[in-house]
Amino acid sequence: MSFQKLDELCRRLDALDHAIAILGADEATHMAVGGGEARAEAMSVLAGMYHRQATDPQVEEWIGAAEAEELSGDQAAALREFRRRYVNLTCLPAEFVERQTRSRMRCEQLWRELRARNDWAGFAPALDGVVAMAREEAQLRAEALKLAPYDAMMEQYDPGNRVADIAPVFAELKAFLVDFVPRALAVQAERLAKRPLKALSGAYPVERQRELGLAMMAAVGFDMTHGSLSISHHPFCGGVPTDVRITTRYRTGEFLSSLMGVLHETGHALYEQGLPREWAHWPLGKARGMAIHESQSLFVEKQIGRNPAFWRWALPVVEQHLGEAWTLPDILPHVHHVERGLIRVDADEVTYPLHIILRFELEQELISGRLATADLPEAWDAKMTEYLGLSTADDPANGPMQDVHWPSGAFGYFPSYTLGAMIASQQWAAIGRDIPDADAEIAAGRFDAINDWRRERIWSQGSRWSTPELITRATGEPLNAEHFRRHLEKRYG
Amino acid sequence: MSFQKLDELCRRLDALDHAIAILGADEATHMAVGGGEARAEAMSVLAGMYHRQATDPQVEEWIGAAEAEELSGDQAAALREFRRRYVNLTCLPAEFVERQTRSRMRCEQLWRELRARNDWAGFAPALDGVVAMAREEAQLRAEALKLAPYDAMMEQYDPGNRVADIAPVFAELKAFLVDFVPRALAVQAERLAKRPLKALSGAYPVERQRELGLAMMAAVGFDMTHGSLSISHHPFCGGVPTDVRITTRYRTGEFLSSLMGVLHETGHALYEQGLPREWAHWPLGKARGMAIHESQSLFVEKQIGRNPAFWRWALPVVEQHLGEAWTLPDILPHVHHVERGLIRVDADEVTYPLHIILRFELEQELISGRLATADLPEAWDAKMTEYLGLSTADDPANGPMQDVHWPSGAFGYFPSYTLGAMIASQQWAAIGRDIPDADAEIAAGRFDAINDWRRERIWSQGSRWSTPELITRATGEPLNAEHFRRHLEKRYG
Question: Shortest Cα distance from B242 to chain A (angstroms)?
């Protein structure tokens, strides 16, 4: 039984996955400061073991033999997804992967050092090396997958996503936002916050904010028997589906940034906790990809957590934990604050997609070779000026040097963020059709019906469908920018 | 270069070791309650990977080839210890190990259930199965190692320890203790504690006790950049040398039990943190064995932590953290409390060795077949009555059912505890020769000279010597019961 052999292989790979995930979460939360070097060594050896076992040529024979076996529908789906991952894992020669890893690591290290010094000239050659290898990688992937090069890169993160489908949707969204951002800012100017976002008492103690975060996590559906909340420098969702580790960081002066972070990571966690347990060790049982994952976190953060209905329920909970009463008119201007800025990770949901579309456009040009690495700052500045009216002409650190993605070689990943935001809106629209009183449910602190809908249509589906198939099956239509546009119009227009 | 191949194998094995150690510590401290099943699965798969790689027949060829290579003194030592471990790991057939694992797991599960019900009759057949397999194991090990069966079992835990050396020392200690325990109790009756061991204010908050524990850990030498203190149900020392995880549990009514636990685990941690870093991934760089490990924890707990000199320094630190002043005459009766009891893990340093000697004697009889499992309760009761004047005739749960060691198949492990106590005393005596003012150092809160002595002679030696060799080299003489006897006489006589 070759399928059985693959099942045993999946168990071995999943054990390594488990170890790497927990060691990674532990590193950012509980590890002793001096433990980093040995931890990095252990994790890299484990990752090597994973790769060697996952890409063993014998595995291809097992896949072929298993495809000839009599399989249930689930088994056949598991095998399809397994083959897809195997092809994606094995389409680069080992020699190439080693060269690329060295080039990426060197560039990331330089990036940490030179970004702080705003030194584009020193950084550009290293980045150019990574770009050159990314072009080569895209060609290798394209040949193996019979896809266009940039599509082949996206395929790693969101199977089935194609430029031909996404580019028009992003173009439509861009046209809307370039016009909409100034309108949203004008509207905002008329309803400026009267109460500043800070504790009247001067501080909201960390322990109370933590209790508030835990209460909110539990309320929106986080299974506290299968996960936990810790502190880390950068918030993340890690661990494994049976033990999801989410983190936040606290500012004692205000509670909103930490709470919104907790809700965002809770969205990721709900997806992980809702994955099909019986296929947990197979790729079929894992989350579909980055865009869908981001859609689940943004759903909880933006569609639920920044929904005024949510705050009707949440304000008494905040008061109970922090001992201060906030009113809707006082808190909503902060929850819905819009601001043009240079930095993607600080952006709000209105301006964020313009940061992404800029990168999506530039990285296609980079991969195709139409844009040279050396010309990036100028191209970046031109788009930043056009889309957000801000210049980065003399500020590459806040321009093309701001993200770790390109130095680390992750081309084709950026679109996932804005696709996630669009999918979250589309999901909310679909839920609105099936659960007409969704706002009232949320205002009453009831999230079960909404979570059941998402569990059935998204979480429990694991990696059964491609990203576009999953969107269509879950929401009844292909990706449609209109839902996100309407969402922004309603909230900020 | 076969040595190089072994070095690479050691890196792979050490990465798995690292993962298993951190996953184990995490399980007892930070894991979500529902994460246990997947964690157990992952750890068992990783342990299987470790075993397969460590016992690969190819490894034997590499060892043989490496032995013919030109090696440095350190490399030769590393290779010797590697071969020793390889032989210990491979001397049982895989089929036997699987049968034994099943038998042990079933017996351990039954033990948890039936100990609570004091059901010896239900438990005995399962234990007898484990004993039968331990006899078989001892034969297999004896043949592979050319040792007597029980010696071959001890060899797993303390290389070089032999019944011929230990039995006379234990016999001498037993004769002394059977006579000494009543004397110590009589002495104690004359200086009973005047102040009960409890907080005047009713409670010592956990957070303050934790700060006290951290202060003590740091003071006695725990490197806080390479380890941490958490809470767990059973205190332990785990993790890896670069990130040692120790734990304790707190009772808010008194501070002594938690603090003594912290000092005990700190002793284990100092050993781990002091191991030779350059050989960390080889067996040579690991701790020598259970007796030496226990000697390091007992050194910090008993030789330092229960030394009256220590409390001269410690009481102001306790007051600073807990806000209550204790005097030496008030605290010492609690620090030195002696009590006859049925339960080994609750025993003090005077009565503890009698619990161990009883088990050491009985398990030799069990392994040799001279004692049948069915006759254990009677044999236990006879010895318990003779050594401590207590009967377990109708109480097998507090007799031969009290420990998990036998149900889990760990025969040959028990002697380590009392050997550790004896080695700790012998070490203290040797330090007293080299550092005549050791008491004054401790009373001043200075532990550097004592730690330097131990680092040089014990910690940095890793697994370079057998247990008896290490004792002799570190203290200048073979194991000698006299030091422990004198220690007890001085403190309790």
Answer: 5
